């Protein structure tokens, strides 16, 4: 039974518990001090003291008395009601033998506790630094691989072009080789950083944290033993002066002897143990897959005439979860019934919030499709409104499915929060808002994406970008004369314009901007006189010409 192995992920709870233990010890010291003062006032004040320190019913303080040391303290208070006729000798003996010694012990205990938790935070900070270094090397590896792939594609393009001089082809080949070597170096650095991090993580969870928590456990057990010894001394002081109340003191001794530091330690484990396993090693992520082949010396002549490669880095690497909060991969019931009530409540609340966000996202998509349909109705040349009916029906069905799912988890959440209705009130009000409101505006959508802690987040991935057009098209769209360009833009990602009114772009392509984003998420661009349309604003980087007519300052 060791806190280092059983409570490896309960750093904050152990910090609170040890502080609570010191508070209990200081409470006992204060109790003894007041007892020495009350001794001169005899039994009446002594009984008032006992009543003062009795735990309050139905309070958090009452729950703390499940520990054996606290139970012994409670027995002491109960026995004190039978005391009478105390005098100054008792006051002097208790001051010298208990109060002074415990006050010195508390100071030593605070210093030791501070040192242990300082070491724990230092170890945590070291792991965070290692994690940042690993992420940095991984991003560098990813970037170098992309650059190597682009250099390889450029070389193959030059090699296939008969109009390019041999010197230029050789220069492109050398540049591709350099980029490829940089990618290999980054790969080796990332692999080394990954091995180092996994080693540091293993030592953190299996060496450093167990060692620190073992010291904290020993410190806490010494505190429990010391408070039990002080209670014995407390009883013996009374025994020397008042033999008549020996039976009461025997009861106090018995309560003190019933203190079991191991039992208290086990109670701490039962109260805070999560049951999760330490995280395993992080898997290696290989970014060399998009490179179809390596650069060779004879590729100058062999690859001439080959087609253009189609492989590209079309998406970003998905990051791993922070390993310190990663849970075990065992099968979990859908209603999280395997978790303690408070942990289960948090999980269910999190699930409800996620479903509400999904519902809001689907409602945003439905609203956008509806606006596009209205645009098609007003401007038939832009597209057929009937072509959007299927998509609109599909989105509506998704919303209904998500609502049913949210209601299921809200029912489980309401069951868990049966004794705490105030906690779930806000969540239930938020989830019910979808049934009573109309199509949300842009501002309300932004508010619904506000995170539970009050901070604003807007996580819209490129893969889930809703491919819809804006409703506020410029009236000049129908003019015969084309709109003038107000700037240029560079495509950050490849976009397939499948809907009418949109235009496809390729990553890295330079195009003209003829109409800015009016707040609907779409920018109107032109490739040539015959090709123009809308693309998502997040897919391009816009450079507006400040001297152009109608241009706005770009922020």
Q: Can you give the helix content as a percent range?
A: 55-70%
Q: What is the multimeric organization of the chains shown?
A: single chain
Largest sheet: 5 strands, antiparallel
* Number of beta-strand segments: 5
Low-confidence stretches: 292-329, 419-480, 550-555
Quote the distance from N terminus to C terminus. 60 Å
| Tally of helical runs | 14
If strands are numbered along the chain, what order do they take across the biggest sheet? 4-3-2-1-5
GO molecular function: lipid binding
Subcellular location: Cell membrane; Cytoplasm, Cell cortex; Cytoplasm, Cytoskeleton
GO cellular component, one term: cytoskeleton
Family: Belongs to the FNBP1 family.
Report on the structure:
With 555 residues, the chain is mainly α. Helix content is 59%, strand content 5%. It has 14 helices and five strands. The protein has helices spanning 3-6, 11-38, 42-52, 60-63, 68-79, 88-160, 166-241, 246-257, 261-272, 299-302, 341-378, 389-416, 421-436, 442-448; strands at 487-491, 510-515, 522-526, 532-536, 540-544. It has a five-stranded antiparallel β-sheet, with no helix packed on it. A hairpin with a 6-residue loop joins strand 2 (510-515) and strand 3 (522-526). Helix 5 packs parallel to helix 7, helix 6 (88-160) packs antiparallel against helix 7 (166-241) and helix 11 packs parallel to helix 13 (421-436). The protein is elongated, with a radius of gyration of 36 Å. The two termini are 60 Å apart. The model is unreliable at 292-329, 419-480 and 550-555 (pLDDT under 50). Residues 345-372 form a coiled coil. This is Formin binding protein 1. Residues 1-264 form the F-BAR domain.
């Amino acid at each position: 039974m060791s806190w280092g192995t059983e409570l490896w992920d309960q750093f904050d709870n152990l910090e609170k518990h040890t502080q609570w233990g010191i508070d209990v010890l200081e409470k006992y010291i204060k109790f003894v001090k007041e007892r020495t003062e009350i001794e001169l006032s005899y039994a009446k004040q002594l009984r008032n003291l006992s009543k003062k320190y009795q735990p309050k019913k139905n309070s958090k303080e009452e729950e703390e008395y499940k520990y054996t040391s606290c139970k012994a303290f409670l027995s002491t208070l109960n026995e004190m009601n039978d005391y009478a006729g105390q005098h100054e000798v008792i006051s002097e003996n208790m001051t010298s033998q208990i109060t002074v010694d415990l006050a010195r012990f508390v100071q030593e205990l605070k210093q030791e506790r501070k040192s242990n938790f300082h070491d724990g935070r230092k170890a945590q900070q070291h792991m965070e630094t290692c994690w940042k270094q690993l992420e940095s090397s991984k991003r560098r590896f990813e970037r170098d691989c992309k650059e190597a792939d682009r250099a390889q594609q450029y070389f193959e393009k030059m090699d296939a072009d008969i109009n390019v001089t041999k010197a230029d082809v050789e220069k492109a080949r050398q540049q591709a080789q350099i980029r490829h070597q940089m990618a290999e170096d980054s790969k080796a650095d990332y692999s080394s950083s990954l091995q180092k991090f996994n080693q540091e993580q293993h030592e953190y969870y299996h060496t450093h944290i167990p060692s620190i928590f073992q010291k904290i456990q020993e410190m806490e057990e010494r505190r429990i033993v010391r408070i039990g010894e002080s209670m014995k001394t407390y009883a013996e002081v009374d025994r020397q002066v008042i033999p008549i109340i020996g039976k009461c003191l025997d009861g106090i001794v018995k309560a003190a002897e019933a203190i079991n530091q191991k039992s208290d330690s086990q109670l701490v484990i039962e109260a805070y143990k999560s049951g999760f396993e330490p995280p395993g090693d992080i898997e290696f992520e290989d970014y060399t897959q998009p490179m179809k082949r390596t650069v060779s010396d004879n590729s100058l002549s062999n690859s001439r005439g080959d087609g253009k490669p189609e492989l590209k880095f079309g998406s970003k690497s998905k990051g791993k979860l922070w390993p310190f909060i990663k849970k075990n991969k065992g099968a979990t019931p859908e209603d999280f019934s395997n978790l303690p009530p408070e942990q289960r409540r948090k999980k269910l609340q999190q699930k409800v919030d996620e479903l509400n966000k999904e519902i809001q996202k689907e409602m945003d998509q439905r609203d956008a499709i509806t606006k596009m349909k209205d645009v098609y109705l007003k401007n038939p040349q832009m597209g057929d409104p009937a072509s959007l009916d299927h998509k609109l029906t599909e989105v509506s069905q998704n919303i209904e499915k998500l609502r049913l799912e949210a209601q299921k988890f809200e029912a489980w959440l309401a069951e868990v929060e049966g004794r705490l209705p105030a906690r779930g009130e806000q969540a239930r009000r938020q989830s019910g808002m979808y049934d009573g409101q109309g199509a949300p505006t842009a501002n309300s959508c932004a508010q619904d994406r506000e995170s539970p802690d009050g901070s604003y987040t807007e996580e819209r991935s490129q893969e889930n970008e809703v491919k819809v057009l804006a409703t506020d098209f410029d009236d000049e769209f129908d003019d015969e004369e084309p709109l003038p360009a107000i700037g240029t833009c560079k495509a950050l990602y490849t976009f397939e314009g499948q809907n009418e009114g949109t235009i496809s772009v390729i990553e890295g392509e330079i195009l003209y901007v003829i109409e800015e984003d009016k707040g609907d998420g779409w920018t109107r661009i032109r490739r040539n006189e015959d090709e123009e349309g809308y693309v998502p604003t997040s897919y391009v980087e816009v450079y507006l010409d400040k001297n152009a007519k109608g241009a706005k300052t770009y922020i």
